[in-house]
Write a structure and sequence with these properties.
Elements: E1 2-7, H1 14-28, E2 34-39, H2 48-52, E3 57-60, H3 64-78, E4 82-85, H4 91-100, E5 105-110, H5 120-136, E6 139-142, H6 147-151, E7 158-160, E8 181-185, H7 194-205, E9 214-218, H8 223-235, E10 242-246, H9 251-256, E11 260-263, H10 272-279, E12 284-287, H11 290-298, E13 302-305, H12 311-321, H13 326-334, H14 340-358
Parallel strand pairs: 1-2, 1-4, 2-3, 4-5, 5-6, 6-7, 8-9, 8-11, 9-10, 11-12, 12-13
Amino acid sequence: MKLVYTLGKLDVGGAEVRSLRLFRGLRELGVEFDAVIYIISGELGALDKDFEALGLKIVYGRPGLRGLIHLWNFLMKYRPTIFHTNVSTANGYYALAAKMARIPVVISHYRSLNDVREGGFHAAKAALGRFLANRISRSVVGVCNAAQAFAHAPNDKWVTLYNGIDLPHSNNNDCRRNDLVIGYLGRISPEKNPHRSLDILEAILRDDRGRNAKLRVAGGGTPDQLRVFAEDVKQRRLENSVEICGVTDQPIEFLRKCTVLLLPSHREGLPGAVLEALSVGTPVVANDLPGVQEIATAVEGVLTCPLSANNIEWAELVFDATKMARPNIAASFAQGPFLIHRHLQSVLALWEHSIASVAP
């Protein structure tokens, strides 16, 4: 199997981390494949060496129209069987380059339910990208059922492919029962809405049940984003109640030590932080996004609340979440659809079926 798999940049993000785990899992299963990770931004990333350690070749593309020409030239030389693109509404443009290079199988993968760009031009560009992806791709894939509406994908091409999480070796809870440790795991960026977590924390601290609560924040961001967040903590006089931990390469251990995970994001696909929290029995209070609701329907441990609700309502849900039984949450997750072995089987089945469908 020869595969070209596109990503924007190999930084520590949901799509990149899940893709790394996918290829690592395939290697562990002994699956034979020759894969190239094509970076459409052309930029180096924090995870480049991790992908290369798996024997994967990284090819750095170009942004914009030059990138499509560069990709077409590369595909004409490399001649993969499968072209699997993971760049949201831009999928269609890269699918077009693959079609022009006569690649037999094109798969467009949606990992988010929102296009962060605004304005009429970007809306038209996104609409054309969706149209091309739906027209050209053999399969249109999404991380949750709700992504189909965002992709405008036809039923006969749509495949829901849940992300997979490794079950932890132990579900011991390191959090003392009298502590209320609220976790925030994600980038310090506008779409993740980190400042709302401070609003909710203030509401919790004003309640006698949460007067000793702590907010632990793990995630990166631009220097300006991190500076503004730290200044906000200081201006609110929350220095003794907020711990800014920076980027963590041990998210499971971070979540294991939290009483509750807080997710006030404006946008998510199928949020990995929620899945990781549930895998160790940590309950979640999250914005009622479609992907979050889908997780809540499948497994225990998720309480949802719209961002339009006030901070006291969010705080009350945090208190409700502390009453949930962590062993029950972890047990429910272990029986659910979000496990890595299920994900690996689904991806392999998709690729193998696609190849079989074009075999002479």
